[in-house]
Design a protein that fits this description.
Strand order of the largest sheet: 3-4-5-6
Structural class: mainly alpha
Radius of gyration: 39 Å
Helix content: 55-70%
Number of strands: 6
Largest sheet: 4 strands, antiparallel
Oligomer: single chain
Shape: flat
Distance between the termini: 80 Å
Number of helices: 22
Strand content: under 5%
Length: 505
């Protein structure tokens, strides 16, 4: 029993020395980390690890298995933790060797490398999205997989460090060892090298590009970039797209505005023989020259359009300029006298008169202001609108209306902006539910797509939202659709019994 305790204490001491050695190496100043220093560290690490392995093997051979199960050394899996720390520490030491060698022997480097310090190439993390797999795979294969200076243990450690999300869960519980690297890499290739799905996503992106609504340099640049990116991605999948030129040109030319399409047809007629077909390279050259020309004339057009949109979105208040004596008109009969002197008003019953006074209270207050400041030039804002629960009530015309003000549409369009615009459609009474439901569907589509709050939605949702906002830039259609007016005015029925029920919160 005493011998086993001694062996356990020795194993714990060796394990702690390996952990402390890595911590001390990280604290070492940069000028101290030389090639000899790193090599000594590697030799010391190998010696500690060799003693630790021998002690572990002897402990298992000489001790009672039943007693070992109760020991914290076995229960806490100290051996596996130490082995993991040993591999990580060894990888870090080997990673420093090339940098230290170059720093200690600058003469071995070429003159160009001394003069120019290239930026470090970083491999992006892979989260399990199929669209990110090709880029990640090519970079990892070039920098890690085909790197003969790295062993399989180091490659697997690098691989696990570049994975997140679903891809990381796929190989999370596979231990880091020499034999497991090839297995993990094959698992990832089998899962994400889905050529059919990748090509389907690329074609969907190519064919779902939006149509041009007017001459726009930014639209033409976006069309060129997206189309070229999709065709290059298909080529990387091993798909021959060299014979697709006439098909791609036809699909993309349909999306151009009428003037650009006309110019393209004229260009083809002048530069391409009748017995030949235009190529995609010629189409790209035409679009390039086209957007360069539009960039000179488009800014003024855009500024005018933006200014007109801003003016249309801002509802100016009604202003009345008065000088001198004003004419007072009766709200009931329209003649020149006050409401209190109106004969029709006097013939109404008490309840009808009270209701009429309530409806014209704001107007009478403004009339009093005019009388108090006669012979002075005034600017008075007449407001006959009463707002409650998202509705506006025009007391003069006795109409209910909805009024919605949205900020101008600007890039980038994110999930947060779309939901913010939809939330402005405040309709607690549900009067305009048939009109609002289409906007609410955008929120449902955004959640189904899994879009982040500050991320742009997928292209199909984004194109639908652009169309929706351009068709209804200020949601003025709500005012046209929802205009509710009482056909039979209450005041015109003097015999009816009126009861006013005020509701407060």
């Amino acid at each position: 029993m005493a011998k086993m305790e001694t062996s356990l204490n020795l194993q714990v001491d060796l394990s702690s020395r390996i952990f402390k050695a890595r911590v001390n190496f990280k604290k070492s100043p940069k000028e101290r980390v030389t090639k000899d220093f790193v090599m000594c560290r590697l030799e010391s690490l190998e010696q500690l690890w060799s003693e630790f392995r021998k002690g572990h093997r002897a402990l298992l051979q000489q001790s009672d298995p039943q007693l070992l199960e109760k020991v914290s050394y076995i229960a806490s899996d100290t051996y596996n933790d130490t082995e993991e720390e040993y591999m990580i520490y060894k990888c870090e030491l080997k990673r420093h060797l090339p940098d230290v060698d170059i720093r200690d022997n600058p003469g071995k480097c070429s003159d160009s490398n001394v003069r120019v310090k290239l930026p470090k190439i970083s491999i992006p993390t892979f989260s399990g999205k199929y669209t990110e797999w090709i880029t990640f795979r090519d970079l990892f294969v070039s920098m890690i997989h085909n790197n003969t200076s790295l062993d399989n243990v180091q490659k697997l450690q690098y691989l696990k460090g570049f994975l997140t999300g679903e891809a990381e869960q796929l190989i999370r519980y596979i231990p880091v060892s020499d034999a497991n690297y090839e297995q993990c890499w094959k698992m990832l290739e089998k899962r994400y090298s889905n050529k059919k799905y990748l090509s389907n996503c690329i074609l969907k992106r190519l064919l779902s590009q939006r149509n041009a609504t007017s001459e726009s340099a930014s639209f033409l640049k976006e069309l060129i970039d997206t189309s070229s990116d999709c065709l290059n991605a298909l080529t990387n999948l091993g798909i021959n797209v060299s014979t697709w030129d006439i098909i791609v040109i036809h699909l993309l030319s349909i999306k151009l505005d009428s003037e650009s399409r006309k110019q393209w047809e004229l260009n083809v007629t002048m530069n391409v023989p009748s017995d030949s077909l235009p190529t995609f390279s010629q189409f790209k050259d035409f679009l390039t020259s086209r957007y360069r020309a539009l960039e000179f004339i488009e800014p003024k057009h855009v500024n005018k359009q933006i200014n007109s949109n801003i003016k249309s979105n801002i509802s100016n208040p009604k202003v009345l300029h008065t000088t001198g004596v004003t004419r007072l008109l009766c709200e009931l009969c329209g003649e020149e006298h006050k409401l209190s002197f109106c004969k029709k008003f006097g013939n109404l019953d008490c309840e009808s008169r009270q209701l009429l006074k309530f409806m014209n209270q704001n107007r009478e207050q403004e009339d009093n202001k005019i009388e108090e400041k006669k012979n002075k030039e005034l600017e008075i804002k007449l407001d006959n609108i009463v707002k409650i629960l998202g509705l506006t009530w025009n007391s003069t015309r006795d109409e209910f209306q909805y009024s919605v003000k949205l900020p101008p549409l600007s890039a980038p369009v994110t999930k947060r902006k779309i939901i913010s615009d939809v939330a402005r459609l405040y309709d607690p009474l549900g009067w305009i539910a048939p009109c609002v439901i289409k906007a609410k569907i955008f929120i449902q589509r955004l959640w189904i797509a899994g879009t982040g709050w500050d991320e742009e939605p997928p292209e199909d949702i984004l194109n639908d939202w652009y169309t929706y906002r351009k068709k209804h830039p200020g949601f003025d259609w709500l005012t046209r659709v929802v205009s509710l007016k009482c056909k039979n005015s209450i005041i015109k029925r003097p015999t009816s019994k009126l009861i006013i029920l005020p509701v407060c919160d």
